[in-house]
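Researcher: We plan to redesign the surface later, but first we want a full-length starting point. Tokens attached.
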């Protein structure tokens, strides 16, 4: 059984707090859709994007351009067991809830950080003995009624009692034998909880979202994103329509489209919008060899929230082949365009175009590039389709494409201020090379192996502003101001009526900008990369701003070279929840300097080139690089294998215990039971080879930077 811990001391403190009315210890108030849509409630932050419209805009003004210079840490919680932190904390009735590594959920007093309860869903127990991909982080939680909802890496959807942290129900959303995972926040609305999953990079899979009854956990409906084998019949007219846009035997690869992020409920129009994923595999030549748009990949799809029935879709990247999914947040706003009020969806997917869509009909209103884009010249507003540049579509060839599989924008939330009428958009600027020349047409997608169907490399960060924060005017479709940033992966943003925009960066700097001009008005050095988006709330007359500190997400896996230059080595810096207020004077212990693990040279270990080559294939095929980095060079999500003692000669058994038997599954390292002794040996030779080569080349960064 999953465990709840609540120390006696905490319990007593809770009772005392309850007696003084600081924390509600009684039955929590029931949160409704009206509450979740209420823009005026500044005391709480009830949903992932603050309210149902996902704007991440707070009407609070106490922290503003004048007072922000006095912002200081009010309280903090150290999280020494955590690794990457990417989640949005929620605040309800004076309690803050947040989710960390391995889906451990904590509740703390939002006025001072005092722990109330911790719930450990014991993910390792579910994963043990099964292959999995190592996505141990979660982007958040959901509140509805009197419950708190969470989803786990291994595919469970959980309902917890908000007061005690005790589990009320648990529902498995996919079998453990399928190569899927959940990193997203569930979306609760209208007595339901919705969740999808990820997995298009890890084997054959067919994407779907599922809605469950929020009281019981019973499945209400499931919407498949791509069609299955027509011979089996179609689940819905939408799937029959979608199947006409696929060719070949796509179902053998699953097709993909997994919805791992971006679920928006429109309380005004009573509609649900989901952002869908790229294909499985990425490469369209292998997935749907005769072409076709491949619906509903890379789309915004509107569904009936009660039945899951299809209403409309807009596809951002037809015939997708670059991992340009549309899993990025879907933000609702009323915009005045050509003297008309438009009920708009704003959406900035990986492909680099900013879309404004009429959400009553799904009709595209405008689309302009918000970053460097070389795969399409523009979006034709008459047809609603991108006009592709031929050279970008590799097919048994090599193409250099901008943006990259990380996207021009990823899951880092954008915010929208109805006061400035600007979107604050974390942007990535990079280029990748795709090469599928070695992939035959009969290539097969295998569960739990890295299965993109194309090799891709990110040749590095092309400029000194590989990241940026943009203030984007969605009506004029242009940037009003831009802050160039060194390094990718700036966090999601928070906009406030105090005229401020808050954002953290991968270099550990947390900043407040003037929302109208982009001038940096305040900053704080957290001493560790920030990947999670900040929130704000107000208790007893004080405005608080909170952010989780802990370099995380795909970039922290080291998949782009810049990530390994930051010095956020595994286990060195303390992951932390920071909460700021005006004149806050808490002093968190300083973080260690950036640290670069030193690769180990084992004098007696003669690297066998053939074994190392086999080891390299195994390393890449098993997706080891997603977390441990290309060339075994880690960026902090995991230990740097070149500096780890486990692959050394005398640790042969220990290495097998970790890699084959999974005895570190508690730390998020799944086992790979099928590996033979010969393959384990090959992996050790590859890792030693990488370590020795780094040392010989003199490219191991030494000490601090
Ligand atoms: Ca993907």
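Model: Full-length starting sequence:
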């Amino acid at each position: 059984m999953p465990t709840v811990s609540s120390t006696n001391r905490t319990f007593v403190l809770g009772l005392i707090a309850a007696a003084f009315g600081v924390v509600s210890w009684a039955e929590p108030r029931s949160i409704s859709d009206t509450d979740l849509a209420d823009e005026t409630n500044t005391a709480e932050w009830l949903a992932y994007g603050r309210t149902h419209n996902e704007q991440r805009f707070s009407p609070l003004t106490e922290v503003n351009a004048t007072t922000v210079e006095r912002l200081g840490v009010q309280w903090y919680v150290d999280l020494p067991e955590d690794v990457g932190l990417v989640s949005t904390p929620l605040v309800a009735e004076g309690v803050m809830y947040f989710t960390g590594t391995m889906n451990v959920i904590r509740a703390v007093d939002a006025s001072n950080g005092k722990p109330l309860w911790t719930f450990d869903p014991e993910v390792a127990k579910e994963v043990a003995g099964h292959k999995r991909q190592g996505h141990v982080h979660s982007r958040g939680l959901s509140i509805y009624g009197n419950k708190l909802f969470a989803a786990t890496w291994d595919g469970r959807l959980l309902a917890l009692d908000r007061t005690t942290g005790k589990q009320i129900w648990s529902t498995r959303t996919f079998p453990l034998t399928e190569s899927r995972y959940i990193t997203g926040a569930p979306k609760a609305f209208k007595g339901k909880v919705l969740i999808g999953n990820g997995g298009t990079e890890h084997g054959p899979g067919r994407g779907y979202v599922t809605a469950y009854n929020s009281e019981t956990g019973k499945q209400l409906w499931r919407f498949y994103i791509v069609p299955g084998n027509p011979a089996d019949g179609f689940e819905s007219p939408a799937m029959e329509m979608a199947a006409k846009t696929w060719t070949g035997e796509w179902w053998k690869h699953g097709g993909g489209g997994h919805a791992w992020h971006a679920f928006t409920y429109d309380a005004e129009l009573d509609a649900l919008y989901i952002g869908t994923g790229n294909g499985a595999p990425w490469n369209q030549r292998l997935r749907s060899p005769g072409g076709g748009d491949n619906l509903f990949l890379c789309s915004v799809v509107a569904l009936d929230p009660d039945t899951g029935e299809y209403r409309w879709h807009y596809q951002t990247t037809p015939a997708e082949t670059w991992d340009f999914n549309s899993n990025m947040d879907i933000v609702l706003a009323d915009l005045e365009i050509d003297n008309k009020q438009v009920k708009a969806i704003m959406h900035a997917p990986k492909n680099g175009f900013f879309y404004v869509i009429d959400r009553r009909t799904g009709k595209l209103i405008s689309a302009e590039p918000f970053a460097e884009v070389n795969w399409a010249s523009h979006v034709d507003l008459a047809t609603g389709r991108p006009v592709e540049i031929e050279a970008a579509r590799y097919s048994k060839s090599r193409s250099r494409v901008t943006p990259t599989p990380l996207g021009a924008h990823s899951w880092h939330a954008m915010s929208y201020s109805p006061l400035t009428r600007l979107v604050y958009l974390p942007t990535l600027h990079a280029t990748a090379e795709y090469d599928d020349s070695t992939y035959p047409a009969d290539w097969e997608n295998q569960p739990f192996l890295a299965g993109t169907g194309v090799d891709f490399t990110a040749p590095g960060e092309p400029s000194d502003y590989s990241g940026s924060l943009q203030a984007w005017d969605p009506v004029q479709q242009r940037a009003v101001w831009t802050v160039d940033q060194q390094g990718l992966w700036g966090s999601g943003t928070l906009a406030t009526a105090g005229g401020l925009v808050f954002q953290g960066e991968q270099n550990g700097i947390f900043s407040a900008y003037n929302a109208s001009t982009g001038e940096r008005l305040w900053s704080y050095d957290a001493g560790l990369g920030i990947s999670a988006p900040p929130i704000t709330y107000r208790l007893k007359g004080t405005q608080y701003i909170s952010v989780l500190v802990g370099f995380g997400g795909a970039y922290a896996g080291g998949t782009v070279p810049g990530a390994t230059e930051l010095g956020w080595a595994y286990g060195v810096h303390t992951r932390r929840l920071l909460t700021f207020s005006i004149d806050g004077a808490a002093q968190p212990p300083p973080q260690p300097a950036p640290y670069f693990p030193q690769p180990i040279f084992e004098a007696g270990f003669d690297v066998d080139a053939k074994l190392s080559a086999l080891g390299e294939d195994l390393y890449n095929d098993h997706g080891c690089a997603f977390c441990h980095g290309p060339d075994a060079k880690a960026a902090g999500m995991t230990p740097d294998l070149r500096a780890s003692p486990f692959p050394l000669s005398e640790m042969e058994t220990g290495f097998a215990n970790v890699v084959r038997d999974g005895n570190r599954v508690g730390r998020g390292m799944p086992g790979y039971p099928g590996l033979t002794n010969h393959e384990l040996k090959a992996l050790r030779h590859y890792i030693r080879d990488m370590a020795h080569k780094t040392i010989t080349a003199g490219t191991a960064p030494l000490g601090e930077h």
